[in-house]
Amino acid sequence: HPCVDWYFEDTKTMYSVLVQPGRGQQFVAQHLTSFEDVLENLTLIRAAYTSLSDPNGARCDIPWEDWRKMILDVALGDPCRGTVIAFKSKNLKNLGLMVVFDDSESMSKRRLFIYAGYSNGLYKGAPTAAMEYVITWAKENDFVAIGANSRRLSGAATRLFRKQLGFRPVAMLFERKIT
């Protein structure tokens, strides 16, 4: 599979995204592929968890232990099936984190799912830049679509996903608690 050839060579990739005509903003995309990588980025992983589990707009309702195990499972798992990406400035200051994994129903139509995306707000273009990087990574690894969901049912979330990140709605998700 193509991802195996390049994935282990260098887990830190300098990436540049155009933020204004003629001006590029450089950042580093680091794939967390070892226990040491996860430990090195624990502050960022905890900040992402804290933000995503905020009770005022919870997007992630799992306990810290489950979040930590999920990060380790994806980071240490098959690199062709998913990855944890830490986004950093060119000076290696934390900007954000994205957790993506294979959510395909068939191998001929591989679908990448964004489980979690977090930006610390220090870089205004972080969501767009991270999405562009993930699209590039997905293409290199033979994915044909990217999915995401949001627990925030608001106009701001809809605008972010549709206008800024290029998603379109394809389903409605319903849940019923079992009592």
What does this entry show, briefly?
This protein has 179 residues and is of the alpha+beta class.
Which characteristics define this entry?
179 residues; alpha+beta; six-stranded mixed beta sheet; 6 helices; globular
Textual characterization of the structure:
The chain has 179 residues and is an alpha+beta fold. It is built from six helices and six strands; from the N terminus they run αββαααβββαβα. It has helices at residues 2-7, 35-40, 42-52, 64-76, 126-140, 155-164; strands at 12-20, 23-31, 82-89, 94-102, 111-119, 145-148. The longest helix has 15 residues, at 126-140. The protein is globular, with a radius of gyration of 16 Å. The N and C termini lie far apart (45 Å).
Topology at a glance:
Elements: H1 2-7, E1 12-20, E2 23-31, H2 35-40, H3 42-52, H4 64-76, E3 82-89, E4 94-102, E5 111-119, H5 126-140, E6 145-148, H6 155-164
Parallel strand pairs: 5-6
Antiparallel strand pairs: 1-2, 2-3, 3-4, 4-5
Kindly estimate the percentage of residues that lie in beta strands according to DSSP.
25-35%
Count of runs of 4 or more consecutive helical residues: 6
Q: Specify the helix fraction band.
A: 25-40%
- Structural class by secondary-structure content: alpha+beta
User: Residue-averaged pLDDT, rounded?
Assistant: 78
Order of helices and strands: HEEHHHEEEHEH
Distance between the termini: 45 Å
The major sheet is characterized as: 6 strands, mixed
List segments where confidence is low: pLDDT < 50 over at least 5 consecutive residues.
1-11, 17-22
Strand order of the largest sheet: 1-2-3-4-5-6
List how many beta strands DSSP finds: 6
Radius of gyration in whole Å, from Cα? 16 Å
Shape: globular
